[in-house]
Amino acid sequence: MYSFSNINTLQADLKGGKITCAALVEQAVTAIAQKKQLNAFLEVFEASAKELAKKTDEKIKMGTAGRLAGVIIGLKDNICYKGHKVSASSKILEGFESLYSATVVEKLLAEDAIMIGRLNCDEFAMGSSNENSAFGNVLNPLNEKFVPGGSSGGSAVAVAAGLCHVTLGSDTGGSIRQPASFTGTVGYKPTYGRVSRYGLIAYASSFDQIGPITKTVDDAAVILEVIAGQDKNDNTSSSKKVEDYSKALLEDKKYKIAYLKECVEAEGLDPEVKAAVLKQMEWLKSQGHTVEAVSFPYLEYLVPTYYVLTTAEASSNLSRFDGIHYGYRSKNATDLESTYKKSRSEGFGKEVQRRIMLGTFVLSAGYYDAYYSKGQKVRRIIHEKTNEILKNFDFILTPSTPGTAFEFGKNSADPIKMYLEDIFTVQANIAGVPAISVPCGLHSNGLPMGLQLMAGYFEDAKLLNLASKIKV
Ligand code: GLN
């Protein structure tokens, strides 16, 4: 059994003949089958993965393999891979097969990574616990009574349980960082526009970013280097040059770090999470960084702004799933209108329906100014205030989440309580800045805790640099 530690070591081991891609795929397939109860994978792409492994083993022999040769990658089930099924963990996309690959997938394949399968998630990436999937809960491998976080729950669990080397998730309000924090993995949301969204099933397009979940920050840097860059198929992707993120990890700089007083003093913050974050701050100071409190009196506006704007965008994005163009069509429909109504009512789950209705409401003629317009204005203020802090400081530090993973069903009856899970993570998406969650020790309940760092626009290299120094 090959024990994966990081991408660079794997490359050396493949070149040195210690392991082959074919064996790595076999191992992954076996591990996924052995841990089937976790329900992380919705499908294993066994045939295509084996084919890729064979080709890559030949390339390794010839010395022509890419820099991700043999890296076994799982895709969140909202990222398209040509000729393979994709469902956003929804019944409404039943039987749908991708007609093209997402740009990120093309880029990974071009470096000889191996796509091993698609990963369970909250339906259309809406949720914080993976309890909203049409295909059942994903279990937290550290304690199976607990949620893995969401919406990229399967992506986090696949890495935490060693089912594959790296996974991709999508982060609209915390969906990479929160499950990473709940499973003791590294979750990275790049700057908005750093990574192409082409081929990602859209939830809220002005918030969505694809990013990696990995065992180490070094691996996140390598993956970002490969997937980042301008794409003619995504007009919001930036033309800024892609930096050498791995090289940036080697720098040793002293930084100015701000922590948000209101986050650390937040009611509802688990005392042990608070203590763990304070301990990290002391450690950072001992390493020569400065850590200072700043005030950010907008905490209570973050979650409402996020939910007004993302549901508005979702109601528009999800209108294409009409029972005609894709996947599921109700058998009980009798005419065009009932095809729309019945297919959408039967195909979408409860949470997705709630958000489509909320979004339709905030965009409706009578309420547009009161909600959507106001939400946009508040977004602008949060954006400006966040950037003001990031002009004076290199980073903003917060806990990733108010607590550790919670038990199944605990927040299900109260959507507001569930939405508050995102209180620390949504700021980065509202402002568009990059953010990372790194492990920050174990709680006395045995579950991992996460520390979040945010940096300024396109300061992804700097962010990865400091994150790579944090050790627990
Ligand atoms: N938990 C948040 C939500 O439910 C974030 C989701 C995400 O980032 N995709 O919307």
Brief overview:
The protein has 472 residues and is of the alpha/beta class. The chain has helices at residues 7-15, 21-34, 46-62, 103-110, 153-160, 177-183, 217-227, 245-248, 261-264, 271-286, 299-317, 336-347, 350-363, 369-392, 415-419, 426-431, 460-469, and strands spanning 41-44, 72-76, 114-119, 166-171, 186-189, 209-214, 256-260, 290-294, 395-399, 435-442, 448-455.
Task: Walk me through what this model shows.
By secondary structure, the protein is α/β, with parallel strands linked by helices. The chain is 40% helix and 13% strand. The protein contains 17 helices and eleven strands. It has an eleven-stranded mixed β-sheet, sandwiched between helices. Strand 2, helix 4 and strand 3 (114-119) form a beta-alpha-beta unit. It starts with 6 loop residues before the first helix and ends with a helix. The relative contact order is 0.13. The structure holds glutamine. Glutamine is lined by residues 125-128, 151, 170-175, 203, 422.
How do the strands and helices of this protein lay out in sequence?
Elements: H1 7-15, H2 21-34, E1 41-44, H3 46-62, E2 72-76, H4 103-110, E3 114-119, H5 153-160, E4 166-171, H6 177-183, E5 186-189, E6 209-214, H7 217-227, H8 245-248, E7 256-260, H9 261-264, H10 271-286, E8 290-294, H11 299-317, H12 336-347, H13 350-363, H14 369-392, E9 395-399, H15 415-419, H16 426-431, E10 435-442, E11 448-455, H17 460-469
Parallel strand pairs: 2-3, 2-4, 7-8, 7-9
Antiparallel strand pairs: 1-3, 4-6, 5-6, 5-10, 9-11, 10-11
Helix pairs in contact: 2-3, 5-6, 7-17, 11-13, 11-14
Bound molecules: glutamine.
